[in-house]
Hints:
- By secondary structure, the chain is of the alpha+beta class.
- The strands form 10 sheets. Strands 37, 39, 40, 42, 44, 45 and 46 form a 7-stranded mixed β-sheet that branches.
- A hairpin with a 5-residue loop joins strand 2 and strand 3 (about 70-80).
- The longest helix is centred in the first third of the chain and has 25 residues, at about 210-235.
- The model is unreliable at about 1-15, about 145-185, about 335-410, about 410-420, about 910-990 and about 1275-1305 (pLDDT under 50).
- This is Protein brunelleschi.
- Keywords: Golgi apparatus.
- It is found in: Golgi apparatus.
- One of its GO terms (cellular component) is trans-Golgi network.
Amino acid sequence: MRATVAGAQSHAPSVEPVMSRLDYEQNALHHSCLLVLLRGVGPSRARILQRAFEKVRRVNNIKVTDSSGVVRTIYFRFIHEHPVEHNDWGDFQTHRRLLGLITIGKFENQTELNELCRHHESLKVRYGGTLYESRAIFFGPDAASSESLAIQNKAGITTVDNAQADGNTDLVVLKETQHPLAATRLQDEFTTPSNFKSQAFFYREQDNCIDLETRVSDFLNALFWVLESRRLERSRERAEKVSLLLAPFEKRDFVGLDMESRNNRKRCVGRVMKNLADLSLQAGLLDDALSLYHNANETLRSVGDSLWVGASEEGLCAASAVILYPQMREIETLHRNASLQETGTSPLRNTPEKWRASDATKKINTPANCADAITSNSSSCSSVSSLLTNNSSASGTPTTSSSSSTSTISATPFGHQRNGELPGNILKPEEITNYYRKAIINYSKYRHAATIETEAALKATRICIEQNRPLDVAMFLQNILYINLSLSEAERVKRFEIMTELYQQIGYQRKAAFFQRLAALKHVQQGSQAPDWTQSYRLMLGSFTGYLLSLDPLEVLENAAGWPALQIDLAQNLITAARRLGQSALATRHMTFLLQTQWDNMTATEQSEMAVQLQNLSAQCEGSPVPLVLDNGTVIPPANLTDLPYCMEMVVKDLPAHLRPQRIKIAKADSGPFLFTPIHFNSVDRRDKKKDKNKIAFLWVQNDLSEVCVRLRNPLPFELAVTDMRLLSNGVVFESLPQTVILQPHVPTNVALHGTPIETGQLDLQGYSTHTLGVKSNCRLKHMRGRHLPPNYLVDVIPALPRISVKTSLPQTATFSNMNKSDIVVTSASLTLYNGESSSCTITIQNESNTLPLEHLEVNINSNVEQELQKKMFRIDEQALQAQLPVAPQGTLEFVVDIYAEADFVCPMPPGSLNTSADYGPSSMPHYASISTSGHASLPVGISSPQHRRQDLQHVTARSTIAAAQHSLAALNLQPGGADGSSSLRPQQLTQHIEAQLRLKYSGGEALVAGYCRQCAVSLNLELIPSAQITSWDVLPAEIPSQFYLVLDISNLTAQEMSLNYTENKNILIEAKESCRVPIPVDRCSLEQVCAARAAEVAENLERELCFRTQLLSFSDALSKLCSTHIAERVKINWLLTGTDIQGVASLRGIVLSHGMVDLTTVSPLEWSISFQDTLVQPHSEIVATVGQRAQLSINLTNQSLQPLKNLVLTVKFYQDYLNGMENYNLETRVAISGPNRITIPVLEKQAQTQHNCSVIFFTPGRFKTSIECVTKPQTQQKNSIPGSGSGATNPTSQLETMSTSSFDEQQAHTWKFIPPIEVTVVEQ
């Protein structure tokens, strides 16, 4: 039965003989050690004496050769404190008896030396009952300071520190160099008091103490021989005269008992035998100790001495462990704290992976016992029979024999030991555990042996740890809890700490954490007079591992293991401890840790409460994302509130469109004939780009403000203020701007974060920092769980680019451009012009950069019109612009954009009129401006829609002309007239809107070298108002063959009177919304131009044929385009709105000509030479003939073209013009022609001439006109052989060759007239 053990005093006899303090550091191997007290005395100068303590502790074993020549290894255990009452248990277990004393002190004068000696002597008196030997090690002053100290001593000045010998562990290593002035011996300068009987070693303060280890070794050697002598004395005692050895609490139990009874005698012999086994174990005689333990165990068991049976069983376990697990000494030495304090280090501190079995353990479990064994021969003595013999019988019981000489206590070994083998009576590893269990059971029968029982359980635990038997470890540790000990709160805490450490060694982290937290709560339990919050905090912090927590919140979130309720409770206790310690920073850090790691494990109410609590804690000390270092060196990693607020999305924004960097395009020259290769030389670069999945496609610019948009949500039920929100970056230097936002509960909010990259290179955007609830947090994307966010964003930063501002001289518009790249528009300009009017816009560019010049500037114009038309509407002097570069910082540049309101002034022709040949009858001759009622080709009777017109014109020859006139079709729609052409043309006054962008690419500085620029644009909105419109047109012969008359019907579509200048010296006024007809003389198109157009048409057809194109061009297309261009270049109609300065030019671009118009526009290939009455006819000359007389008419034709003319038909007709639009060709009764008036000329070669003569007789007087014309008729066979005309097509190449050599009259019908018509006046005779 266990009972409560009374408390023991350390300096006086105890009321009840129990040990006052548990030795939690004991292990089984300490049974073989001699106990030495190593104590610092005198003033507290432990740091200076650290080197001495290290040297002494280093000598923890010695080699001794006994009288039989056997070398023994004797081990010593140095302790810093030893209660006196523990010596009373020296008979029960000899390793508890203090045998040696070493004191170390530092003095500066004789007084201090005397004090050190007094302390040493007081310790000798205190432990005098068991002390064998003692030594004192004194460190005095250096030789340099000894003279001054002597002077002070003579003056009566002494400095004695009132310090206690507290064994301070905070020591430093002494210097290795010896003071050069230490020439005289220190003991010659200072003397010890007369009552100081111990041996002292004197060293100077800076002495290396070279011989100190040797002296300590000699001291330990002396201790051994004293112990050996005591062992020998014990072994020579007679069995019948041995006294009864008692445990301290047994003295009252044996009072009045018969000690001569058989059982008591056996009890005495068994206890003495057990005591001798302890001495043998300490003396290095392991074999003898094993035999004696076995014998003592059997003897004591036979008499029911349970306490001493347990001691003998524990001794057996210790002796066996010394042999089987010698490495436990080495581990203890390696892990021993080099200080006076013994901090409870255990042989194995880390994890079960370090468990290992020694070679001896392996040998005891295997049949082949062929390893090195620790052997020890029994020593020789002068007694009649030796104490231990290897040849005695293995009876296993102590023998008490009567002889005439002497009877001694002997040990009969349980087995024989050969060289290289383990002792036969050694316990196997599994037996050690069983024996320890038996010993603990025996101890548990005595309430005064509770301390012994607890220490035995701890020793068994450490053996089981060495044997890798965690279940047995847990069993022994659990038994400790049931031992009824009267412990102080500090001792209870110590017990829990030791259990924590042992549980940790076997990997029972959860158990270890439980006891560690229990110890922490014991430190600050209610009713404690001096709660130790520091120790409580330390222990709770150390229990994190057992609860599957880590100080690093990132690791906790990654593992997501453990028991959330326990973890939350532990964190709250830790916060309370930190607050009680006054460590507001730690309390804030732990609360932040709690919110970060356990946010998902808390209810909404708990989240809100914890957030409020954090806000209150941070009011005392603000939280920051930096590690906190405790006094013991423990680092508390930073904790960040990554979910407060909750980040839903993070988007890196590109720069504004007009500030985005672009690559300067450089025209690449072909490096060879191979324009395509399947080899991808940049495939490696593409693979690298695929790896950078977080790489942003766009670029940022150095020193330019950049933006990142973050979408946040407040999970708390109250408003959350987030201040000093900044971007977190790595790589290049980045200046982040703070942002403050107040988030409403559960409402997503977009927050724009800005910053400026200061350097060029790659910028790594890792997240953002916040300051909320009083805590600064670094919220990195890679730590945000449950969101599809990349770990970071990589943005390339290019060198700085200049920035410009653009202004125009025109007013701005209300809306910007609707064209592509409208986002790069920075300003706008609007302008209203009449069609044909010119204006200009001045663009002013200012370089807003403070350091960068504007070195590169490109100006391009993009609009919603065709490129050719755009070139006519906008013009910029590039040379003048480039001459102003570079522009210095804060400098300006100006250039002018010339704008011309290009429009189609020509009203589209009706398709029906294009197929109508011009017919100039005699009635049309008198007045050129009048139009005959027979309907000329220039007078359209109806206008179709543009679409129909485009389709109809595909069947005629004017393809290119129609294509050029598409804008006029879209801009002007005329109401169709009647079928008879009687209705007038009324064009709609449509306003045309043109959008254009003046795009500016600019760069400078290092960015220009790197090939980067920026692009911005100016939006130009042009409103083109109709001015003049050509509604109809015709081509009439002029008075001279080299010219023709272009007759135009021009309408004034403006609301003002218009002055029209159509020739150099002719003007006409047109009222608003009215029209007029004007004839304009124009030079005809020369034959050289016609031939060049034909050659170009033939070459293009040949190219089309070689490229396998089916549709070939017709010569009429090229000739019609040539004539249209000829008219547009030579006819410019200037208009002016009267009363204003608004003026412009109306062009005839896109005019469409019929075949008859084309013949009149070009110079005739025939040269006419006509004679009447053998007189050459001159233009407008007067010819007189007589009635009834024959008149000779001679016509001479010359081919002036470069090709022969074929199938010509020459016709001569006489008619009368009544000058009222009526022409009479029925003159059979008035005129007679002698000879043919119509002849056919098959071929007229180039430069060839032909002549036709005829006679004419007038029957009546009057005025007659002669119409002489030559008409070509194309052959049907030639028409069918045109490429692509049908199944009759032959080889296209030969046909093209034929076309190039044939005359154009074979392809189309032409009419050439002699103009003006010959006018003959017939008179009477």
